[in-house]
Amino acid sequence: MIVFMTALLVVLYQLTCHRNQRVKDGQIQICNLCRDNPKTQLWLSFLILSFLTTCTSAESEIEDLLTCLEELNSTLQKSDAMLYTAPLSDVEKCKDKVLRCYMVELIMVILEEQINDSKTDCLYHFNDDLKPEVGCPQCEMYSLQNISTFLRMLTNTLQRINSM
After folding, report:
1. Is the same domain home to 40 and 62?
2. Coiled-coil regions in this chain (predicted)?
3. How do the pLDDT tens digits run along the chain, 164 residues long?
C-alpha cells in the first residue's frame, strides 16, 4: 500500500509541475506551484485519505454486522419463524442479493416479534447500503430454515465474505 501511495504522489506531482522540476532519480521534488498552494496540498491529502478509507470500509461493515448479530442472537432465537436461507454457493455470484435476502428476513423477524432495541439499527443501515443485483434468484427460491439454522448460515456467509 505504501508503494502505491508513493507512486500516486509521484504521478500527481509530475502532472502538476513544470518539465524541468519533475522527479529525478526517484526523489520527489515539489514545484513552486505545488509548494505555495495550500489548496493543492489539502486536496492531495484528501485524495490519499479517501483511497485509504475505502479499502477498509467494506470489511468493517461486515465486522460491525457480525457484532450486531452476536448482540441480538438471544433475542432473535426466541422466534419460531421459518426463513428463506441462501446457500453459501450463491455468495460469490450474488453477494449483495444474498445479503439483502438475509437482511429482509431479519427485519421481518424484528417487526413480527416487535423487537424494540436500538441494536437493530445496524441491520437497517446495512440493508440500505446494499446494491441491487440483476440475474440473481429471488429470496423465495431459497429453502426455508428455522431461525437457528438461518443465523448460523448468515454468520458463515458473512465470515466467508469477510475472508474474500
Report:
1. no
2. none
3. 554 455 555 445 555 555 555 555 555 555 555 556 667 777 767 767 776 655 444 557 899 999 999 999 999 999 999 999 999 988 888 999 999 999 999 999 999 999 888 889 999 999 998 988 889 999 999 999 999 999 999 999 999 988 87
Q: Burial-class residue 143 by CB neighbours within 10 Å (0-12, 13-18, 19+).
A: exposed
Check: CB of residue 146 under 8 Å from CB of residue 82. yes
Amino acid at 81: A
* pTM greater than 0.70: no
Domains contained in the chain, number: 2
Helix then strand count (H, E) for the chain reads: 6, 2
CB atoms within 10 A of CB 51: 13
Same domain, yes or no: 63 and 83: yes
- State the cell numbers at 161: 465474505
Grouping H, G, I as helix, E, B as strand and the rest as coil, residue 145 is: strand
